[in-house]
Amino acid sequence: MQLVAVGLNHETAPVEVRERVAIPAARFKEAVSALAEHVSHGIVFSTCNRTEVYALEDQASPAVPGIERFFCDYSGVAEAELLPRLFHKRQEQAVKHLFRVASGLESLIVGEYEVLGQLRHVLVELESIHSVDLLLLNLLRQAVRVGRRVRTETAISKNAASVSSAAVEVARKVFPDLARCGVLVIGAGEAGKLAVKALLNAHVSRVAVISRSLERASELAGSLGGIALPFHQLKEALSGTDIVVCCTGSPHFVLEPAAVGEASQCHNGSPLLIIDIAVPRDVDPGVRGFDNVMLYDIDDLEGVARTNRSLRQGEVAKASAIVDEEVSRFMAWWKSRLAMPVITSLLDKAEAIRAEQLERALKGMPVLSAEDRARLEVMSKSLVQKMLHGPISFVKANDSRDSIQMVRDMFGLDVTE
Fold first, then answer.
1. pLDDT tens-digit map of 58-109
2. What is the pTM of this model?
């Protein structure tokens, strides 16, 4: 059984493609069920910058064609547009990629911590689906563990710029004195919470939170010293703010050009900065047509990400070394798991032969003392162990079907997997 990873991220696809493939949290289990129609054993996860599938395959049932069909069918994106943007990784490279994702090494903002929380949430959801393959669950558990270890043993996440705090850096470039700025955060989820915290740390003058759920907006705003507004006051809120951070989970645009254009006229020529960190995007790109409106989406933060990476190369090297170590450990377990049935069968057969032959020999030597019998028992076991050391080491080091089958045939083993 081989592991394969297929997906797309901010390096392979622009946001206008990623947002069409992204899986909202509310549709996660639906997506898992849809994937099961295309591959026998697979898991999927989606964050703001990636959607990836990990699956098991063998020579008789390749998984990649099914995964590609899943991506196209579920997203509605045409094959010609989507397939060239998908990456494909197998075995060790697939494991390494997932561990790097969990460690923040593959993020737009290197070291960001949001992706680890997202993976934990995916793990909890998958553990509640009893049909998910245990090997894939263990892979994801190990990825979460590796992500925690990297953040514990390195400083890669110390003061790391998340997507939300990178948005604040963009805001500083437009408004050098953030203390005079009012901020409107559209969305009361985790991304909105992080954005509010980052803006408050930057000493903005006021923060308002608006959401379709006034209760959630009130809860978030109250915990952070801001104010909550009902969603029907969105137009008025836009007119009275300087910075808008959009981070909802809506599958459709939340801000349309008409509403933004009307709000911009109330600014008397001063800029209205809109930072859209949602995937799918919250803001219609048509708002870029207004002179005093500046729109930054998730891909526009790449410049901040490049700066962040250059400042963290030392910690990146430490984190990468940890990932490499953990990949080697996981692959050793993977190989031993594949080899264990044939090793167990080999040991059982050898022990049965040893015990039978020793018993026959002892029947012909009735005068032997108990001490001598014990010595023969130890000697025969040691002899078997030494004889089998080579075959067992070989099968552990070679996880291919052909190598395992060769050992089966050589020793006449009947192995039930």
1. 777 788 999 999 999 988 889 999 999 999 999 999 999 999 999 988 887 7
2. 0.68
Q: Tell me which residue of 173, 104, 94 sits closest to 140, measured CA to CA.
A: 94
pLDDT of residue 327: 94
Q: How many beta carbons lie within 10 A of that of residue 147, not counting itself?
A: 28
State both tokens at 395.
Answer: 């099968």
Contact between 117 and 190 (Cβ < 8 Å): yes
> Which band of pLDDT confidence, cut at 50, 70 and 90, is reported for residue 309?
low
How much is the pLDDT for 302? Answer: 66
Among 398, 284, 285, which Cα is nearest to 338's?
398
Residues 139 and 99: their CA atoms lie apart, in Å, by 9
Asked if the model's pLDDT at residue 217 lies above 90, the reply is no
Q: Is 48 a catalytic residue?
A: yes
Question: Beta-carbon neighbour count of residue 300 at 10 Å?
Answer: 17
Expressed in angstroms, the distance from the first to the final Cα of the chain is: 12
- The amino acid sitting at 275 is I
| pLDDT of amino acid 105 | 86
Question: Which residue in the list 48, 72, 246, 247 is annotated as catalytic?
Answer: 48
Distance CA 349, CA 362 (A): 20
- Whole-number pLDDT of residue 100: 93
The Cα 337–Cα 187 span in angstroms is 45
CA atoms within 13 A on the CB side of 65: 5
Q: Report whether 58 contacts 2 (CB < 8 A).
A: yes
CB 143 within 8 A of CB 299: no
> By the 8 A CB rule, do 315 and 336 touch?
no
147-152, long-range: CB within 8 Å, 24+ apart, which pairs? 147/99, 147/102, 147/103, 147/104, 147/115, 147/116, 147/119, 148/116, 149/322, 149/326, 150/102, 150/103, 150/104, 150/105, 150/319, 150/322, 150/323, 151/103, 151/104, 151/113, 151/116
Q: Which of 328, 316, 315, 281 is nearest to 300 (CA)?
A: 281
From the centroid of its chain, how far is CA 413?
40
pLDDT tens, 134-172? 889 899 999 999 999 998 998 877 655 556 667 777 888
